[in-house]
């Protein structure tokens, strides 16, 4: 059984995914559309796709497209996803799910009403540290888990200036100031992808930027934002807490590791740093670095990475780690590029399998809301000087 897919947005990120969707035995034709038609044409030529549509609306009107995959700029997803669901298409969306509580509520309602598949492509879901913690939690190895930390530490100087210029055109500074806490899913999702709970309240602190180069300038920012770094402490259902860092001005080698996680339980704990990871209990320390280390699948100068800033390419060259169980993946993926610590193959397979078997995907709308809404509320908390705010919850997916 196969379905046809329309990719929305032919920028820096979608190319690697177009290749995987096309290779998956559960997908037939793959089309693409972009506001800049030359980008869509280029992607068709590079990946051998079936063709372009002149607009997203034209794609949604077409009976030749069963599902859409949204790879547009990060603040645009909510309305585009809703439009897709309301047109009767299954939807895969790059992160984040949306940037307001209302958009999230509307997506959940549309998924409930239509019964269509929605999935958010959160790469941390398959980050080796999250996968390992998830396995260990399932085995009870931590004892009672009561605290975790998730960081997305990516300095603007390490590829983001170029990426925002490519993405935003002349007015790129207006969007390069995108609030760090409105991009919360790599840190929150990496914690909650392992720890089966959800955030119920938060207090967050933002650091006002002082570089003075017009990025993170409230006057120029489309989001009125001048926070470049932010830290949030979340209370979770069932007791305990986790802390996330979203840093965009930080002395840290994000080309080596941009998301990092730590988990603490009553019996054991796990800590990940840039180049090493450890499992600890009351007796001692075990080095688990090897287990979590993704193997490279692509050279950084591969022509398919042409549109990606050299400083960002490491994220697109990493393959699976020993902790990844690839046995359920299609063999067609074996020799294809992967990325973001081996997550791309699993995310594509999750979505395709969910659509074809009419089952819930891993990061379904209800899970995506729990990875995204805490950041939206945390940003509001930071704007209010760290006020402790409650986080609404949409509950578990129906049938869970
Ligand atoms: N680790 C991760 O999960 C990860 C990594 C990188 C990027 N991303 C996400 O992927 C998304 C895309 O990132 P990118 O770097 O490719 O962005 P980009 O700016 O390079 O590309 C976005 C493209 O979408 C097009 N577009 C915008 N609105 C459109 C519309 N209505 N119809 C058709 N095309 C439209 C733009 O013209 C542009 O070419 C972002 O949301 C980003 O958050 C996620």
Automatic annotation (TrEMBL):
Domain Gfo/Idh/MocA-like oxidoreductase N-terminal span(s) in chain numbering: 4-121
This protein's UniProt keywords: Oxidoreductase
Top-rank taxon, per record: Bacteria
Protein name from the UniProt record: Gfo/Idh/MocA family oxidoreductase
Pfam families hit by this protein: GFO_IDH_MocA (PF01408)
SUPFAM superfamilies: Glyceraldehyde-3-phosphate dehydrogenase-like, C-terminal domain, NAD(P)-binding Rossmann-fold domains
UniProt-listed PANTHER family: BCDNA.GH03377
Lineage of origin: Bacteria, Bacillati, Actinomycetota, Actinomycetes, Kitasatosporales
């Amino acid at each position: 059984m196969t379905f046809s897919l329309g990719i929305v947005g032919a920028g820096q990120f979608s190319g690697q995914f177009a290749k995987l969707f096309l290779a998956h035995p559960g997908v037939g034709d793959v089309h693409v559309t972009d506001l800049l038609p030359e980008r869509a044409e280029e992607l068709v030529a590079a990946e051998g796709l079936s063709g372009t549509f002149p607009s997203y609306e034209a794609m949604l009107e077409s009976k030749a497209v069963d599902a859409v995959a949204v790879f547009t700029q990060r603040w645009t997803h909510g309305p585009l996803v809703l439009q897709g669901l309301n047109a009767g298409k299954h939807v895969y969306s790059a992160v984040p799910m949306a940037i307001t509580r209302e958009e999230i509520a509307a997506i959940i309602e549309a998924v409930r009403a239509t019964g269509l598949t929605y999935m958010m492509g959160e790469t941390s879901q398959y980050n080796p540290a999250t996968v390992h913690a998830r396995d260990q939690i399932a085995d009870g190895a931590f004892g009672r888990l009561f605290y975790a930390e998730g960081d997305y530490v990516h300095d603007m100087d390490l590829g983001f200036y170029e990426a925002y210029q490519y993405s935003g055109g002349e007015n790129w500074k207006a969007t390069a100031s995108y609030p760090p806490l409105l991009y919360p899913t790599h840190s929150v999702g990496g914690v909650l992808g392992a720890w089966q709970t959800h955030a119920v309240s938060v207090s967050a602190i933002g650091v006002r930027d002082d570089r003075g180069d017009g990025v993170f300038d409230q006057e120029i920012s489309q989001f009125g934002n001048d926070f470049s770094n932010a830290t949030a402490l979340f209370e979770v259902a069932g007791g305990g807490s986790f802390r996330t860092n979203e840093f965009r001005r930080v002395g840290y080698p994000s080309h080596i590791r941009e998301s990092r996680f730590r988990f603490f339980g009553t019996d054991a704990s796990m800590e990940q740093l840039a180049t090493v990871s450890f499992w600890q209990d009351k007796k001692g320390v075990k080095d688990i670095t090897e287990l979590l280390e993704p193997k490279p699948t692509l050279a950084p100068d591969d022509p398919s990475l042409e549109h990606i800033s050299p400083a960002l390419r490491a994220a697109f060259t990493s393959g699976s780690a020993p902790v990844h169980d690839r046995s359920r993946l299609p063999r067609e993926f074996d020799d294809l590029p992967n990325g973001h610590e081996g997550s791309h193959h699993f995310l594509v397979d999750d979505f395709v399998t969910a659509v074809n078997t009419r089952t819930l995907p891993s990061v379904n709308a209800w899970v995506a809301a729990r990875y995204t809404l805490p950041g939206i509320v945390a940003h509001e908390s930071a704007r209010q000087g760290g006020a402790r705010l409650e986080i609404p919850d949409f509950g578990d997916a129906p049938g869970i």
